[in-house]
């Protein structure tokens, strides 16, 4: 598969949140962008045009007039973006991380993250920057604006930061002994960022965790309960299971794992919407968001 390096005006609209009609006006009136043309006269924009539009949009959203921005050189635009970025750290970071994704620029990602870390906690970075970016990436991927390689590149970099911050709290001795949390993704589920972050929060609250990762069959959980009795399982369901409903899955959980003794299973992720309005057994808890999950962990810590 060839990595996408040419973008349509619709791609630009999706990435910048500026309407295609407005982009055409900026292009025609101010010569803001310089697209190539296909044999059928369709606009095609390269990465240079795209990154310029992202910077221009950032400044435009900061209140600068497009007529003024259009007169600036690329160097002047970049300087202004950096200046405004000191006050609008989240917006600037989102802009920079999108550019890093499109250009496969690890250095830019790390510089942006390090700059955020000077004034923000890791939790704030995750919720204020990583989560909005992940939500936007999901839409961009579904609309074909970006390649799967773009999505995987930026996701893996975010996962690395979660793992690095997790290791820091993992080295501390647990202060909470009421329960041990075992975190896993169901069989064939590979969307791991939510679960990785949940593991970070549980450890940061002082609990011990057993992190099993992705693609775990239910039968494998039996080996965990042989070593620990006070286990609470946590799982994140994004697209799996797809061959059975989630309600059937949790019934199977009780049949296989909670047959002799009841074990709690905390559930998060998009697939849990299937359980809306369903009365569940008491050992199942569904969280509508990571924020609700964190609130539960902090309450448990105080109890």
Short description:
The chain is 53% helix and 11% strand. It is of the alpha/beta class and 303 residues long.
Could you explain how this protein is built, in words?
With 303 residues, this protein is of the alpha/beta class. The protein folds into three domains: 1-87, Multidrug-efflux Transporter Regulator, Chain: A, Domain 2, CATH 1.10.1660; 89-171, Methyltransferase, Methionine Synthase (B12-binding Domains), Chain A, domain 1; 172-302, Cobalamin-binding domain (Rossmann fold, 3-Layer(aba) Sandwich), CATH 3.40.50.280. The protein has 13 helices and seven strands. Strands 4-3-5-6-7 form a five-stranded parallel β-sheet, with helices on one face. A two-stranded antiparallel ribbon has the order 1-2. Helix 5 (74-85) packs across helix 6 and helix 9 packs parallel to helix 10 (193-204). It is elongated, with a radius of gyration of 23 Å. The mean pLDDT is 91.
Largest sheet: 5 strands, parallel
Uncertain segments are: none
The count of strands amounts to 7
Query: Oligomeric status of the shown chains?
Result: single chain
- The fold-level CATH name of the largest domain is Rossmann fold
Overall shape: it is: elongated
Structural class: alpha/beta
Task: Provide the helix percentage.
Answer: 40-55%
Question: So how many helices?
Answer: 13
CATH superfamily of the largest domain: Cobalamin-binding domain
Question: How many discrete structural domains?
Answer: 3
